[in-house]
């Protein structure tokens, strides 16, 4: 009986992060979080393509990453970034209502094979 690969993968990931952190090769936590959020926004747009869903989520993820980085590095107030993020989300929601923005493609469904 084969067991799942979740435990070995988790051990590799935790050990790798621990090694990077102890060797001081890993950036501080806010910078790492900002990079991951920004990368997630760009990757989501690249993988899923431009549609009503990614029009809202991709820019907001990238904005959240940029905001966290700016707040950490420039010591700016979070209230300004939250307020501008609300305005940005509202504008993106209005743009997503347009008929020119395509709907999200649904992946093809795979039904179980039925043998008679």
Using brief descriptors, characterize the structure shown.
single chain, 116 residues, mainly alpha, flat
Overall 3D shape = flat
The count of helical stretches stands at 4
Class derived from helix and strand content = mainly alpha
How widely separated are the two ends?
31 Å
Low-confidence stretches: none
Strand content: under 5%
Portion of residues within helices: 55-70%
Keywords: Membrane, Transmembrane, Transmembrane helix
Transmembrane segments: 29-47, 54-71, 77-96
Describe the structure.
With 116 residues, the protein is mainly α. It has a domain at 28-96. The protein is 68% helix and 0% strand. It is built from 4 helices and no strands. The model has no long low-confidence stretch (mean pLDDT 86).
Can you describe this structure in just a few lines?
The chain has 116 residues and is mostly helical. Helices cover 68% and strands 0% of the residues. Keywords: Membrane, Transmembrane, Transmembrane helix.
